[in-house]
Amino acid sequence: MKKFINENKGLAAFIIICLFFAVWGLIFGKGDELIYTVFGQYIFLSIVNIICSASMVKKGGALGFLSPVIAAVLSVLVPLCVLGKTDVAFAAFAFGAAAIGYVFGLIGFAIRKAKKKA
To answer: What's the whole-model pTM score?
Structure first.
């Protein structure tokens, strides 16, 4: 169990950040939807999605290669919970960021495997 938790720290961090954004949007979101959407969803959550996805794939493990998809789905569900709607732009940014993170993670995974062989 400890190994499973250790390998999936990036997913846990992303879930905590998504919960933070959901609470922030529910408490302060009324009247500030544009700020929440642009800053929270499009910029910050996309950057965090790239970093966490790369970290999760690089470590490999049980959920390593599936976790960017989970992170992208969470990125789409957060505005659905907060704003009551979601659209193609949210999905494009979420899955695009997860794909970029996935590629970076695969590169890191390959480098890590090559160093272990050498």
So the answer is: 0.74
